[in-house]
Amino acid sequence: MVRLAQTLFSLLSLSALAAAGPIHYPRADNSTKIRTSEMHYIYPNAPTLSKPTTSALYVEAYSNKSQVEQVAIFRGIPANAKSCTVGWSQADKNDRVFIVKGDSGHTTMRPLIGFPSGEVSYESVAPFDRDNEDQQFGPDFTFWDDASYAATEHVGGGVKCSSEVYIKVLLRDPTVQASVFLEQDSKNGLWLSYTT
């Protein structure tokens, strides 16, 4: 009976430990990886507001609403690309600017079916953000900004390959006051990998 109790306690401890920190899924990589070429801010509460492109990943929610969302653009994907996957990288603590505030850095990312030709705003992106709920995935940035985490690659989810891929990024639960900021460069930020 004591042995059974010890086994159960060990299993419960492992479960609690696994739930407490982020999970990293390593993979063998023989693919080509490209970084996002543009990031556009979009504002659900100011749907016509359009701002210049940025290099940083930044999403935010407060007052029970998503306040800042983004669209990431990946260009230059060859016509024969297969197995397209979106993910993100973080460098060692001294080579990154990465801040997660609030209770959750869990995001939702989903491909858009196109992209506006003019100004980029929440309203102009909306017609392209449909029929894609089954294609969304949820990278979780929670805890990964901690200085104890070294350089790490994170796999987000698979997307349909195309010469250009547009990904909408927002916090998964807008009722949680939170924000994610990640300066993007050659070692940090969103990427798309593919095989040929």
Short description:
By secondary structure, the protein is mainly beta. It is 12% helix and 37% strand.
Overview of this protein structure:
- This is Ubiquitin 3 binding protein But2 C-terminal domain-containing protein.
- The protein is mainly beta.
- The protein has one domain (28-195): Jelly Rolls (Sandwich), CATH 2.60.120.
- The chain is built from two helices and eleven strands.
- It has helices at 2-20, 122-125, and strands spanning 32-35, 38-42, 57-62, 65-75, 82-90, 98-102, 107-111, 152-158, 164-171, 178-182, 189-195.
- The strands form two sheets. Strands 2, 3, 4, 6, 7, 9 and 10 form a seven-stranded antiparallel sheet that branches. Strands 1-11-5-8 form a four-stranded antiparallel sheet, with no helix packed on it.
- A hairpin with a 2-residue loop joins β3 (57-62) and β4 (65-75).
- The longest helix is centred in the first third of the chain and has 19 residues, at 2-20.
- The radius of gyration is 18 Å and the shape is globular.
- The termini are far apart.
